[in-house]
Amino acid sequence: MSKNTIFRKKNIQSVLSQSKDGHSSGLVKVLGVRDLTSFGIAAIIGAGIFSTIGRASFEGGPAVSLLFVFVSIACVFTALCYAQFASMVPVSGSAYTYAYVSFGEIFAWIIGWALILEYAVSNMVVAISWSEYFVGMLTGFGIHFPDYLTIDYGTASKAFAAIQRGEQATDVMKVAAAAYEHAPTIFGNAKLLIDLPAGVITILVTGLVYIGIKESRTASNALVVLKLLVIFLVIILGAFYVKPENWSPFAPNGVQGVLGGVASVFFAFIGFDSISTTAEECRDPQRDLPRAMIYCLIICTVLYVAITLVLTGMVNYTELKVDDPLAYVFQKIGFDFIAGVISVSAVVAITSALLVYQMGQPRIWMSMSRDGLLWKKFSEIHPKFKTPGFATIMTGLVVAIPSLFMDMGFFVDLTSVGTFFAFILVCGGILYLDYQGLSKDATFKVPYINSKYVVATLFIIGFGYAISQGTFVEHLQEKPLLAVFWLVWIVLSIMAFRLNFSLLPVLGILTNLYLMTELGVTNWAIFIIWLIIGLVIYFGYGYRNSKLAK
């Protein structure tokens, strides 16, 4: 393929030889399967287990426990594809590198740019969420943190203006307005309103990631152990207060009620892919990365199902539409001490998730820089700490500064599309490599199930069910992106019949694409704007400086 095309690809053998010849010699190989599994658990079990489970249970009742099983199986489709790539291309870069060897440079750049949304931008959300839990924990211990140092300017000023106009105010709005009113002024009339805990925790975690992978590993393992101990405590202690009658009816709102929580439940599993960014710091990545991805998904699924059954057994599902369901159910039975322990563990859980994502982003930037798509500085390895020093510092700044001043709602919509887009390309990459015969040397392979007739059969069943509901046209009008989903399913049915595709990667593509349609047009619009900015940078710098171009 011409070196002057945007679809130029990296050769798998050349990637491996470059890695062995010294590209990865600056990084320390210290991670084993236990460490990688711990990183995966740290990334997956963040704030979600302390909040998402409650709202999903409110919508679907105890049957949401089964939804966690089904969604975990859907995640396994993608995780298996990541695992096969990790065994074939055991270098840093995650989906970015996988796309480079499958579809070419332009897709690699798009994925690398999209992963900034998954890691850096989502960490802004995590940091702001950490601040909320941390301040709430301090309040529980009788320590009051100044309100104007825990909120962004936009939220506070809007709440103050709304109340001044006479609008009906919620308790949250009243707190925000009070923070604005009592905030000190600087530079004349400007109000000092920043989310200080969010910025501070980001800087501290970035500092830990900067000084070494060993230190990060030790901290992550310790935080995960603490987190798991609290979750086991909740499950074991809560089991004694379960009332089986609360599990009846098991699915009070039917299948639609259960599926109503599918997006939030899926988000509770996102994070397993982050461990693939540490491939060059693994002692045996081709063996350990695939195992760790599957292990962490299995462990997290068991914990999610157990927590859901305990929660819906302790209280009626209709009581669980709260932000802190775990603390709520124990307060309800008079265990205020356990509720306090849970609030502390929520802070620990979010800290460990923040740590893993702050590790992932610099290593993706490092891989892109090695390939010439980003400035050379991003690939420099610190001579003492053996980490991508400059990239780590930049990640810290990119996350910390916006988290000080911006509203969490601004970032939430930015994170999801990039994640699903990366998942789809990884699953598609496996289909392409299998078709090209490049998967034969993989030490781990996605189990092959011939989808020749299965994909088309599933399409007929799925499309028939959608039509039979009598609201197909209305759904397309509400979510026009569903048309893309059905069209892709038709195309995959034809290709599967002709090319005997492996079933699991196809199911991974369809699952992630369907969840993308749930995100709405606004999210897609934001993603397209982000993508255009990235393409300007690529054609302005990366295309000409790519090592494949030279």
CATH class category label of the largest domain = Mainly Alpha
String of helices and strands: HHHHHHHHEEHHHHHHHHHHHHHH
Spatial order of the strands forming the largest sheet:
1-2
Number of helices: 22
What's the topology here?
Elements lengths: L11 H12 L9 H12 L3 H13 L3 H25 L6 H8 L2 H36 L12 H12 L6 H12 L2 E2 L3 E2 L4 H16 L1 H27 L14 H6 L2 H6 L17 H30 L10 H8 L3 H35 L18 H17 L2 H29 L17 H15 L3 H7 L3 H18 L3 H15 L3 H25 L5
Antiparallel strand pairs: 1-2
Helix pairs in contact: 2-10, 2-13, 2-15, 3-13, 4-13, 4-17, 4-21, 5-6, 5-17, 6-9, 6-15, 6-16, 6-17, 6-22, 7-8, 9-15, 9-16, 10-13, 10-15, 14-15, 15-16, 17-21, 17-22, 18-20, 20-21
Write up this protein.
The protein has helices spanning 12-23, 33-44, 48-60, 64-88, 95-102, 105-140, 153-164, 171-182, 196-211, 213-239, 254-259, 262-267, 285-314, 325-332, 336-370, 389-405, 408-436, 454-468, 472-478, 482-499, 503-517, 521-545, and strands at 185-186, 190-191. It is mainly alpha-helical and 550 residues long. The protein has two domains: 12-138 and 200-444, Amino acid/polyamine transporter I (Up-down Bundle), CATH 1.20.1740.10; 153-193, no CATH class. Helices cover 70% and strands 1% of the residues.
What tags apply to this protein structure?
Amino acid/polyamine transporter I; 22 helices; mainly alpha; 550 residues; globular; two-stranded antiparallel ribbon; 70% helix
In short:
This protein has 550 residues and is an all-alpha fold. It has helices at residues 12-23, 33-44, 48-60, 64-88, 95-102, 105-140, 153-164, 171-182, 196-211, 213-239, 254-259, 262-267, 285-314, 325-332, 336-370, 389-405, 408-436, 454-468, 472-478, 482-499, 503-517, 521-545; strands at 185-186, 190-191.
